[in-house]
Every structure is written in structure tokens, then in C-alpha cells.
Design goal:
Layout lengths: L2 H9 L3 E8 L4 E16 L2 E12 L10 E6 L13 E7 L2 E6 L11 E9 L9 E7 L1
Antiparallel strand pairs: 1-2, 2-3, 3-7, 4-6, 4-8, 5-6
Length: about 140
């Protein structure tokens, strides 16, 4: 890893946001944390390995379906690189969504799930995901 990227990695703060989703029948309290893990060369291209950690602070479990977390990010996610039983889809432009896949078993109260992925190299804080919001239903 180059010294510039190493220094940038140390300088990028983790993004932590409390997400509250409510519908007429349910409310879920979640924390979403984003972290830059490291840079990697894959298929001849430089990529960043980053990840979201989703924690359930509610007394009720987060179901295995029926929710999505929307966020903005400049770089697209490398298809097939997302772990943790979820996928990241491009919605439009720089709007993406994190959605559960068939492998997601739900999230019990006080549990967390890590969803790591590969994307373009994060060279400054403006390339970190921003503005996450959750939709349920």
C-alpha cells in the first residue's frame, strides 16, 4: 500500500449512523458503521476493501427480508464481492442500496452482521458512503 493511501486510510473516520425505521406496525433501531479495511489488487485493478457493520439495538429481530438501506457512494461495488448474506445494488447514479439475499438469516436483538465488499479505491473522504437511510416494508 502506498504511503499516501496508508495515511488516508488512517485519516478516514468510520461512518456511524443510527437508523430508525418505522411503519404503522414496526419500528427498528439499528446502527450502521462503515470502515475502510485495506486496498487490494484484484483482476489487475486497484480496489478498496470496505465494509458495513449493521447492529440491531431493538428488542425485536430484524427480519431476513423486507428492508433495504439506501446510501450514496461514488464508486460502484464489484459484483459478487459482498459478504454477510447481503448484496449492494446500484439504484441510479451514485444511489445504492444494501439488501438482504437468500443467505441472510435475520438479525437478532444485540447482534451484528459484517458486510464487506470491494469497490474502487477510496482516495479521499468524499468517496466514502454518505447519507444512509433504511426502508422497511
Amino acid at each position: 500500500m502506498s504511503p499516501m493511501l496508508r495515511n488516508l486510510r488512517l485519516a478516514l473516520p468510520a461512518l456511524v449512523l443510527a437508523l430508525t425505521a418505522s411503519t404503522a406496525t414496526a419500528q427498528t433501531a439499528l446502527t450502521l458503521r462503515w470502515e475502510l479495511e485495506y486496498d487490494v489488487v484484484r483482476d489487475g485493478a486497484m480496489r478498496s476493501r470496505a465494509g458495513f457493520t449493521l447492529t440491531n439495538h431493538d428488542t425485536k429481530p430484524l427480519g431476513p427480508t423486507g428492508w433495504a438501506i439506501y446510501f450514496n457512494a461514488m464508486d460502484a461495488v464489484v459484483p459478487g464481492s459482498v459478504t454477510g448474506g447481503c448484496a449492494i445494488e446500484n439504484v441510479l447514479g451514485d444511489l445504492h442500496r444494501l439488501v438482504p439475499t437468500a443467505g441472510f438469516q435475520g438479525l437478532a436483538p444485540a447482534d451484528s452482521v459484517r458486510m464487506a465488499y470491494l469497490a474502487g479505491v477510496v482516495t479521499n473522504v468524499s468517496l466514502a458512503p454518505q447519507g444512509p437511510s433504511i426502508g422497511v416494508g
